[in-house]
Amino acid sequence: MFWLRQSTSVTVAFGPGLDITDGVTPETSLATAMDNASTGIRVSKNGGNLIDRNSGTAPVHDEVGWYGVNLSTADTDTLGALQILFSGATVNLPIWMEFMIVPANVWDSLFGADVLQTDVTQWLGTAAATPTVAGVPEVDVTHMAGGVQTVTDLKDFADAGYDPGTNKIQGVVLVDTTTDNSDMRGTDSAALASVATEARLAELDAGNLPTDIAAIPTTAMRGTDSAALASVATEARLAELDAANIPADIDAIPTTAMRGTDNSATASVLGAAVGASISADIAEVKAETALVVADTNELQADDYPTLIAAVQTVVDAIKTVTDLLPSSGALTDLPINITKVLGTALAESTGGRIAANLNTFWDNADAATAQTVDDVGSGGTVAANLTQILGTAIAETTSGNIGANFDEFFDNDNALTTKVVDDVGATVSGSGDATTANQTLILQRIAATSMLRSAVSVGGKLSIKAGDTYSVVDSTEIVLTITDVGAATYTEMSDAGVASISIGFRRNGGAVGEITGTIAKATLAQASDVTTAYIELPAAQTTGKGGENWNYDVQLLLSTGAKVTVLTGPAEFLEDNAS
User: What is the 3 state secondary structure string of 413-448?
Assistant: First the structure.
């Protein structure tokens, strides 16, 4: 049993596929059958019922009957045993393999770079305490050296020490050795000598301190001696503060014009007045400003911004139209979006194509000239003279009739039959003959295109008894009824270009055309939008067949050698119980 990582996509070697007849010969073509949605590889998860393999990746043959089979994350999502098996019924012996789905951590620990996750949940059957700090276990010490320990014992251990002989811990021992202060900093001469030198102590000598203190009263303070003041308070500076100078300066203040208050001073800055004076100029500016304010208030009252926005909207609409016009030259080719003709809205059959109703497009009876549009849609005469279509001049075959040249309206090169419209109006060499046009058939083909090419079952499920003969002569034929609106399928099957009609059956994973039958064209019938086909199968084709997983195709062999499938559907072969 192989191990697989949970919820991980993996491709496993599955095999060997051996021939069901001799059990030895490798089967190398089982990939398609293994990938079948309902009969391919099946899986069982941890003993559950067999289900279809989830993976959408098809198996690939490797060598000697071994296949690479992909298992998706959904196939490996359940822990435990995983069985996968495949039985090809009549082709190969059953193939099965077993796997063990393990958690990703287990797989990565054993076969990758991960480590195996081991979580302690119990101690001797008792749940472990939740840790206060994640990743750090809660450890309670109850014994030391085999002896029971309590909280009080641990406190005594901390207080008394570890050594039973001295009953002291290392810290307490050091305290004991310092009771005589022999190692305190500053208590030994050697320590003090490095700091308290003889020179420093001499400064504190009784002969020095009194002398320094006695000299303080006789030493001039900074700024109190003449030499110090003389460098700052010079005679010239003091003269400015003389009684004769300060009053004179104060008296002159009222008679000295302030800067900007005399005309000459102001003129040097503002320049000469424009009017009678600068004040007159200012008054005139003020009056003009009042007029501007009045005008702007009027703009607000008339809501000119809204009016301007409305004008802009109209201009934008005009620009949208004028942008369609050519930038230069004559106005000859204009992109026009036609929505109505004579007041009637146009309908589109497909995008950009008009569903035109040309009742009497060229009617000479009422036309003013031989080239006028008359009675377009219904009623009235329009003197519209069409001279060009898409820039090309219109040619008349006879008076009032357009010489329409549909060169390749339906080209025989790609047509299903020869009854198609080809080169109407003018025959192009090598492109077909207009005389084979069949408008009725064209309409039928257009109406039934989706039905003829549909891959959905039209006739429903066919039930066939194994070993029976189905024949029109014996009135035992298989009757297949097909919903066929407009008889499109009937026309397709009974067309002269169809050489023969056959039906083929194939079981899922089986060979193409494992069972074949025929449908005679002469027996086809059609009525009330229902086509009836009669299928004939000889007993040799149905003998030994059984099971539900069959499908059938009804195919036409054309006289050109081409093959066209018109119908498909499911079938079942019921086992022969009487003989």
Answer: CCCCCCCCCCCECCCCCCCCCHHHCCHHHHHHHHHH
Q: Is 63 helix (H, G, I), strand (E, B) or coil?
A: coil
**Residue 374 three-state SS:** strand
Full-model pTM: 0.29
pLDDT digits (tens, 9 = 90+) for 318-365: 998 888 777 776 666 555 667 776 677 776 666 655 555 544 444 444
- Interval 369-375 mean pLDDT: 43
Check if the beta carbon of residue 85 is closer than 8 Å to that of residue 104.
no
CB 64 within 8 A of CB 93: no
Phi, psi of 574 (to 5 degrees): -85, 135
CA-atom Rg of the chain in angstroms: 57
pLDDT score for 98: 96
State what percent of residues in the chain have pLDDT above 90. 20
pLDDT at 575: 81
Dig out the tokens for 200 from the structure: 């420093």
Task: State the Cα–Cα distance between residues 574 and 554, nearest whole angstrom.
Answer: 21
What sign results for the dihedral spanned by CA atoms 365, 368, 374, 380?
negative
- Say which DSSP state 486 is in: G
User: What are the backbone dihedrals phi and psi of residue 66, each rounded to the nearest 5 degrees, phi first?
Assistant: -95, 140
What digits encode the pLDDT tens for the residues 281-299? Answer: 899 898 989 898 887 787 7
Q: What are the C-alpha distances in Å from 17 to residues 13, 31, 33, 58, 66? A: 11, 10, 12, 16, 6
Distance CA 558, CA 564 (A): 8
Q: Are 549 and 508 in contact (CB under 8 A)?
A: yes
Q: What is the DSSP string of 527-540?
A: ETTEEEEEEEB-HH
User: Which residue(s) pair with 557 in the sheet?
Assistant: 500, 563
Q: Which domains are present in the chain?
A: 2-111 (2.60.40), 342-402 (no CATH), 455-574 (2.60.40)
Q: What pLDDT score does 428 carry?
A: 41
For residue 364, which amino acid is it? Answer: N
